[in-house]
Design a protein that fits this description.
Keywords: DNA-binding, Transcription, Transcription regulation
Structural class: alpha/beta
Shape: elongated
Helix content: 25-40%
Domain HTH lysR-type: 9-66
CATH topology of the largest domain: D-Maltodextrin-Binding Protein, domain 2
Number of strands: 12
Protein name: DNA-binding transcriptional regulator, LysR family
Strand content: 15-25%
CATH architecture of the largest domain: 3-Layer(aba) Sandwich
GO molecular function: DNA binding; DNA-binding transcription factor activity
CATH class of the largest domain: Alpha Beta
CATH superfamily of the largest domain: Periplasmic binding protein-like II
Order of helices and strands: HHHEEHEHHEHEEEHEHEHEHEEH
Family: Belongs to the LysR transcriptional regulatory family.
Largest sheet: 5 strands, mixed
C-alpha cells in the first residue's frame, strides 16, 4: 500500500478528503473549499487511484465513506487539525475574502430568534461565506464537532460532554403561554392551575426526561404532560387549537408567540432558575482561525441582543 510520503501523493488532496468525509456532498464540499465541483471530482478520482479504493460511494443520502475511508478518517483529521490549529492560525482568518460554509448545530428556536441577526452580521463582515444549520441528536454532537461537520453548537444543551470547550453567551428566564380563550385563567396563573392543567413540553430527544423546561419538574414536582414534541414552533399553534393546554418556554420565544392573537404570556407561578445559552466547540478547533473568528461574531451578536 502506498503511504503518505510517496512522492506521487499530492498533499493538496487532503483538504478534499477532509471536506468530503465531513460534508458527504461534492457540491457543498466544493463550495467550502472554494473549488469547482469538477475540480473536487477530479481530486476524488486521484484519491481513489492512490488508495486503490472507491473511498466514497454515491447513495440517496449523500456520499457515504467506505471502510477504507473510515480507516483514513482519524489520521487525516489529525493532520488537518494540526495544519489548521498550529500553522494556518498564524496567518489569521480574512473574513473579507474568505469563501466557506459555516455550519451551526442549533434548534429552530435559535434559528427564529438569533439566526437573522447573525446572518446580517456575516453578510457585512464575510460576504463570501454562507451558513448551514443542523439539528443533531445530543449523543452525536461531540462527534459532529470533532469531525468538523459543524463549527459550533449553540443552545441550552443538557448533558454536554465534558471534552467540549464552551462559552456562556447569556442567561434567560422561562414564562408560560396560555390560550386567551381559556376563561379560567386571568392575567395571572396560580400554582394550583399550573399543576392542574395539561402541558406541552419540547424535547429534542423525544424523551420527557430531556424536556427543555425539565428543571420545573425537578424543582417543583411533576406536571401533567400531555404532549412531548421536538418542535418549538408548533407549540403556539397547538395551544391555539387546544385551549386547555399550556407550555413553559424561554421568554424571547414567548414574545414571538404573543403575535398569535389567541396566545397570552403569563409569569410561571413557580420559581424556575434562569437557563444559560452557550456555544460549544471541539478542542481540535480551539486555535483554528475561522472557528475563532466565528465564535467572536456569535458572542458579539448575543451581546448586542442583550442591550
Amino acid at each position: 500500500m502506498n503511504n503518505i510520503h510517496n512522492a506521487d501523493f499530492d498533499l493538496n488532496l487532503l483538504p478534499v478528503f477532509d471536506a468530503l468525509i465531513r460534508i458527504r456532498n461534492v457540491s457543498r464540499a466544493a463550495q467550502e473549499l472554494g473549488m469547482s465541483q469538477s475540480a473536487v471530482s477530479h481530486a476524488l478520482k486521484r484519491l481513489r487511484l492512490f488508495f486503490g479504493d472507491q473511498l466514497f460511494l454515491k447513495t440517496g443520502s449523500g456520499m457515504q465513506p467506505t471502510p477504507r475511508a473510515l480507516e483514513l478518517l482519524e489520521p487525516v483529521l489529525a493532520v488537518m487539525g494540526t495544519v489548521r490549529g498550529e500553522l494556518l492560525v498564524r496567518e489569521g482568518f480574512d473574513a473579507a475574502t474568505a469563501r466557506r460554509v459555516f455550519s451551526l448545530c442549533m434548534t429552530e428556536m435559535g434559528e427564529l430568534i438569533f439566526l437573522p441577526k447573525l446572518i446580517e452580521r456575516l453578510r457585512s463582515a464575510a460576504p463570501g461565506c454562507t451558513l448551514r444549520t443542523l439539528q443533531v441528536p445530543m449523543q452525536q454532537i461531540e462527534d459532529v464537532l470533532e469531525r468538523g461537520e459543524a463549527d459550533l453548537a449553540l443552545g441550552s444543551l443538557h448533558s454536554m460532554p465534558d471534552g467540549l470547550f464552551q462559552q456562556q453567551l447569556f442567561t434567560r428566564s422561562f414564562v408560560t403561554i396560555v390560550n386567551r380563550r381559556n376563561r379560567q385563567i386571568g392575567e395571572a396563573l396560580s400554582r394550583e392551575q399550573y399543576f392542574a392543567m395539561e402541558h406541552i413540553v419540547v424535547s429534542l430527544s423525544g424523551r420527557v426526561e430531556d424536556a427543555y423546561d425539565g428543571i420545573v419538574d425537578q424543582l417543583a414536582g411533576p406536571r401533567r404532560i400531555y404532549l412531548t414534541t421536538p418542535h418549538f414552533l408548533t407549540v403556539p399553534m397547538i395551544i391555539e387549537a387546544n385551549a386547555n393546554l399550556i407550555a413553559t418556554v424561554p421568554r424571547e420565544l414567548a414574545s414571538r408567540f404573543a403575535g398569535y392573537r389567541s396566545i397570552k404570556v403569563v409569569e410561571t407561578p413557580v420559581v424556575v432558575p434562569a437557563f444559560a445559552i452557550r456555544q460549544y466547540w471541539h478542542p481540535r478547533f480551539q486555535h483554528d482561525g475561522a472557528n475563532n473568528w466565528l465564535r467572536k461574531q456569535v458572542k458579539d451578536v448575543f451581546d448586542l441582543h442583550q442591550e
